[in-house]
Each structure stands twice: as C-alpha cells, then as structure tokens.
Amino acid sequence: MVMSIDSAESSDAEVFFGRFQLDKRRRQLLKDGVEVRIGSRGFDILIALTERAGELVSKRDLLFSVWRDVVVDEAVLRVHVASLRRALGEGQDGARYIVTVSGRGYSFVAPIERKRGNGLASSGYVPPPRHGRQFPSIPRLFVGRDEVVDDLCTLIVKQRFVSVVGAGGIGKTTVAGAIIRRLQAEFGDEGAVFVDLGAVDEPGLVAGAVLSAVGCPLGGAEPLAELLGFVAGKRILIVLDSCEHLLDAASHLASQLFQCTSGVCLLVTSREALNVEGEIVHLLSPLACPIDDVPSAADAMATPAVRLFMDRASSAGFEGALNDADAPVVSEICRRTDGIALAIELVASRVGTYGLRGVAGLLASHMELSLTGQRNAVPRHRTLQAMLDWSFRLLAESEQRVLSHLSIFVGLFTIEAACSVAGSGERKSAEVEIAIARLVNKSLVWVHLVGDTVFYRLPDVTRTYAAAKLVEIGEAEPVSLRHALYFGAFFKAIALEQGLTLTSGVIRLTSETCGRRSSGASQKRIARSASSLPQIPPLCFSVCGCWSSAGVGRGWH
C-alpha cells in the first residue's frame, strides 16, 4: 500500500510513544516536553511508520511517501532511518522503536497512543489493529454453536491448548469471541487477550504482536523471550486468531507458550491446524441445513443455517415470517452455501433488493462471490471472493492447480477419479494425492464417508471460485475431456459387469459425482473436445444404460 504524507497528517493530530510526543501539524517531536531535532525527511519517515505502526512498511512505500517523484537510492533511506534511530535513542535502556525486516522494509513496534484533532484520545497497543482487550463482537443472533462453545471452554481449561480449524467464513472468530466471554469468570477481566494475526504480514512480528497485546512494552531484542518472562506465573487466555498465513511462526510461539508456562491457555483459530505437540484440534462444522428438499417452514426454521439467513434477511428489509411456500427456496439457498456463515450472511443481505427467489437466481448464476458485506469487516471477509483469494494465495502452485482441476467435479468424487482427472501429464497420482491431503488440511476440500468409501467434495462457493481459476489457466477443456473419459470408462465397466458390483444407490451417488448439474458451458467444452473422439459415443450409451437401469434421471428436464 502506498501512502502519502498528506493523508497521514490529517489522520491523528498527535501520537505518543514512550517518552515522545509526535505533533504532526506543528511537525514537532518532543521528548519529555523538549523538542528533538530531526530532519524533514526523518520526520516524514517517522510519520509514515507510526501511521502504520505494527505493520511492515516496504522500502518502496517509504521512498514514495517521503521523496515522492524524486528518484532516490535505497542507501539514502537507510541513512535517514539510522539517523532517526539515533534521535529516538534506539537501544538506550532497552528502548525499541523501529525494526528492520531484512530485504523488505521497516516496522514501528513500540506501543503508541493517538490523539485526534477533536481532543478525543484513542489508545492501544500495536500491532495489530484488533488486539488485546478488544474482543470480536458477537452477532445479535448466535445460532448453532452453543454446545460447541461449551465443549471448547471445557477443553481449554483442562487441556490448555485448543485450535478451532475450519473453512474461511465458517465462524471461527465468532466462536472465539463467544469463548472469551464465557471464560471471563475463569480468567477474570484482565486475564484474556485477543490477537488478530490476520493483520500481521511478517512472521518476525508475531511475537511482538502478542507481547503488545498482553500489555508488555516492547523493549528487548527478543520479543518471544520477553513474552515468556512476562506471562510466567500468570493465569491468562491468549487467543491467536487467523494463523493460517503465519503457520511456522504461530506454531513456534504457541508451542513455546504451552511448554514453558503452566498458567497460559491458548485458543487458536486457523484454516489449518498448527500440528504441534499439545494441540487439541476441533474441526468446526458448517451450520446445519434442512435435509428435506421440501421442508415446512417450521422444519426449516429448526436449523441454524435457515435461522441465520432469515435474521440477516430481516435486517436487509425482508418482512414477515418464513412461510411453507418459501421454505424450500431458503433451504436450497442455505444448502448451496454449504452452511458457511459468511456466505449465508452475504447472500441474505441481498434479499431486500432481489427477494428470496432473486437471491436464489444469483446463486444459480454464480454471482455470490462478488456480494459485499459489512464495511467494518476485515478486508478478507468483505466478499467471498476476497475470502477465497486469501486462501488461494497461501497455496503452493501445485495445490492451486489441483484445486482448479477438482472444480470439474460437481458433488462427491473419489481419490481415483481425482487422480485420473488432475494427475495426467507431469502430475502423477501420488502428487495429486499429496495435494488433496494438503487441501483437506487447509479446509478447502471436505471429506465425506459413505459406507466404507471415502469421498471428497469442494464446497459450492469454493468450486465456483476454482472453476474460474481453471478457465484462467487455460486448462478447462482438457480437464473436461479427462473427466468425460474417466466417467465414460467407469460406466462402461459397470455395464460390462451388468451392475453386479454396484448398487443402484451408489450409481445414483456416482451420477451426481459425474456432474449432471455441471454448467452448460462445461458441457459444451466436453462436447467440443469429444466431438472428434470415436470412443465417446459408445461410452455415452453405457452411461445412459446404467443410469436408466438404476432409475437415475427420472424427473430430469
């Protein structure tokens, strides 16, 4: 992010840190009330760093902010930062203000207090922006999680180290906020801190973020050692929220806190487990949706997903209670969102504009990724697109490609099918299996057990996102063709065996897997790719024959 000094000057009239007062309007730096002489460039650097205290400010951003259109070598920046450190007395009596992140930039790490132009002070420690005693808000309607919260509270007190793991937007932070409030009697008002690691970009800043959140000034050279010393002997709950992009740093810190203290309890939220000794992992399930295709209004409202949807729809302008005629529509909407709380809320927020059936149409057109949420939400939760962008960027290139290929499956699929579709060419089956295991760990692919068979599935929102990525990389047609060939051969084998090895129920399940609900565009791609292949028509007859004998396809249009 490139920031201009003009915008920074209007943000906070004064900033206080340690024994210093930074007056932006008068362009003065005072120490114990006495002015400290620093150059104009040094003053601008200090403004830029304190404006984004706790964040990494890149060298590029600093050069642009301070020198604007003048071409300046990075060596000049280093000289000015060194001069600024001397003026601040960096290192004297353990004082620590500016940290260098090698090859990247700088971060202002001291606790600060801001005073705005109207005289109202807002104080707090940084990093990050959401931290310490500022706990995540609890929704007006907190549905479907009471039992989970009770169980997790018991686990935290007994085991000390619990990670809540689940897909993006599923409600991990909301559950963490509820747990903090339930455990306030256990730890006291000052005994719980919340650290939003989603606002921390660099692994080297994690320990400092937690140290700041627990209320300890950042003074020493080793924040983790300081943190361990500060919390030793204390009874405290530390919540580390959104750890998935800082797994190594968060894992090391959590492991040290767990092993080196006796009174510290840890609650971690992440899309992937930390996988360290002592960690108890709880997989947070989606909100339950109606099972019946045509439920009554009463049956639909008995499920948490529908209750959440109707509550948010009412806030968005929907009037009246859910009736029996609309219950199937709302139930299908909730099922299409896979019970993911953020997706339900974003879709429901458009009911006032589009109506229930209009919103259902948005889902059918895959428009849900662009729906915007509350303005005060963290950036990665303002749209489903942003949420999935965040997850996708954290994947290795091989995982990104396999996830994109798996988007061809509508519904459940087996590891064999996945390897056949995504494992051709340079990607061998073993590599695909490893990638899928990692995607499961990262909560992007879900596991389903049907009898003794393990199936996998992409949540609909994730599949829509991944399908767009598949088109972006130009591999939609070859993947569609491999998908068609695999299932053609699969059903041909069934036809040859005369259905003796598979029940009608499994055939129905596999027909869903084959993607009978896939988009028209996907079907056209398959048709174009397959038109020149003589083996496709006979396979299609095999598929149709198996489906017909199993009763699949009745009522299709």
UniProtKB/TrEMBL annotation:
Keyword list, A-Z: DNA-binding
Superkingdom, natural source = Bacteria
Question: Gene3D superfamilies annotated for this entry?
Answer: P-loop containing nucleotide triphosphate hydrolases (3.40.50.300), Winged helix-like DNA-binding domain superfamily/Winged helix DNA-binding domain (1.10.10.10)
Q: Which GO terms describe its biological process?
A: phosphorelay signal transduction system; regulation of DNA-templated transcription
Q: Which residues bind DNA?
A: 12-110
List residues of the OmpR/PhoB-type domain: 12-110
- InterPro entries in UniProt: AAA+_ATPase (IPR003593), HTH_77 (IPR058852), OmpR/PhoB-type_DNA-bd (IPR001867), P-loop_NTPase (IPR027417), Sig_transdc_resp-reg_C-effctor (IPR016032), WH-like_DNA-bd_sf (IPR036388)
Q: From the UniProt record, which GO molecular function terms apply?
A: DNA binding
User: What is the name of this protein?
Assistant: OmpR/PhoB-type domain-containing protein
